[in-house]
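Annex B. Sample input.
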Amino acid sequence: MPGDAPTLGDVIRRFGAALVARRGATLTPAQRAVLSTLGRCHTAALGGHLYRCDHCSAEHPAYNACGNRHCPSCLGHKSAEWLVERASELLPVPYFHVVFTVPAEIAELALGNKQVVYSILFRAASETLLEVAANPEHLGATVGFLAVLHTWTQTLLHHPHIHCIVPGGGLSPDRSRWVSTRDNFLLPIGVLRTLYRGKFLAYLAEAARAGELHFAGVTAPLASPSAFDAFLREQREKPWVVYAKPPFGSPEQVLKYLARYTHRVAISDRRILSIQGDTVTFSYRDNGGGGRRVMTLSGVEFLRRFLLHVLPTGFVRIRYFGLLANRGRAENLALSRKLLAAASSSEAPPAAPSAQETSDAADLEGRRCPSCGVGFLRWVAPLTGIPIPEMDAWAPVQRDTS
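Annex B, continued. Sample output.
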């Protein structure tokens, strides 16, 4: 409605046609599908439900959500459901946050090879944590952790990196005891950094030899084997960034942190401040210590940057490793709790917000009427989807394949 805070969907509907006109030849099918789907989220195009106030009779339509994993308007519901499941899996130990990044040159290569390079990022980071933790010189235990791929900076530039949430300890090799980490220390960062860099570059070299990498644009000069070998040598000399944040102190903090890092996309609706003329203004956090700042981009450039972060169809961005791998997770957690003497004595982790508490706008039954502020909204009838002709011309309706 007029006066409402702008959303990503508003930006797409306002500037999507211009983006397609200028850059349509460079858009992938997945990016086109995201434009088509998100541009119709919470609009009449997806249908919905009609509600009427039982006091003033004002009618209020509530349109359906698109459910796309790249849509900031749809993530609250999915995040709440996911957190309910995770709450029962938390162990009564400190949790650490470890981040694995890549140099800018690798990020450029990843843009044209997302499936391959993002998969290598997961593989190198997970194997590094598992191997260093298993080394008796460090922890000497099998750890388990959750890893989440992010690909953005606060200003929507491309910066692929992995966030790992790691319990402070693991099972001994014979699975007879729980091995705890030292206070405020998980594993030596220097060792993690060196092993991770070596693994990543080795797997990247394998991909190149197998012909799995594509070179175009700024990466075109790397197409010859000799040039790519030289590129790899340069990357081996660079200081790769791996860092760990202080551990969390309680299950509540872990759940809040998981909510911040798991179900997120490149930008949230609340960061979009205004749409004026041909520009979009949004807020961002200055990681250099400048607090919150504001940036204005052309609408087309804003969408171009957002689409950098559309993942390949079917690519899984939240993964589990070690003790938390899907196979054996329940057994490993039960044994860990037993060895921690926590199965019967500790309180259960606090429940995450229920999925119902964060359901989308279609569930309005019984809410206070925004028109009169006195009555309550009551369901009247379903609403059938209505085409948006101005969008249909440049973004035909597509099935969500994300």
